[in-house]
Design a protein that fits this description.
This protein is mostly helical and 107 residues long. The chain has helices at 7-16, 18-53, 59-82, 84-106. It is elongated.
Length: 107
């Protein structure tokens, strides 16, 4: 559910600078990837244990989903770094519009 940020929030983001904005966006993407990867790993491990894994427990069957979840997170980190240029463009568009509006208000 996306919400529209208020002018105050946009102004705060623009004042913080582009590096802060990109860092926050990357942190958001990585956090989501960690959550998704670990949720999938726990779900897969739960299914394994539910359908007979507890009778003949094999640690590799429990470890494998967590390794896959870690790999999913690593790929997310790489993708987040690749999106830096698109975040930079979006930041510049929004903040340049804010500067234009502020200049018009001042005159």
């Amino acid at each position: 559910m996306a919400t529209n940020p208020s002018n105050t929030e946009i102004t705060n983001i623009c004042e913080a600078g582009i590096d802060s904005y990109i860092q926050e966006k990357n942190k958001e993407v990585i956090s989501n990837r960690i959550t998704e990867g670990m949720t999938g790993a726990v779900f897969a491990t739960g299914l394994y244990l539910l359908f007979g894994g507890y009778n003949s427990f094999d640690y590799r069957m429990v470890l494998a989903p967590f390794i896959a979840g870690g790999a999913y997170t690593f790929v997310g980190i790489r993708q987040a770094k690749d999106k830096d240029s698109s975040y930079r463009v979006a930041f510049e568009q929004v903040c340049s519009n804010m500067r234009t509006e502020n200049d018009e208000d001042a005159s």
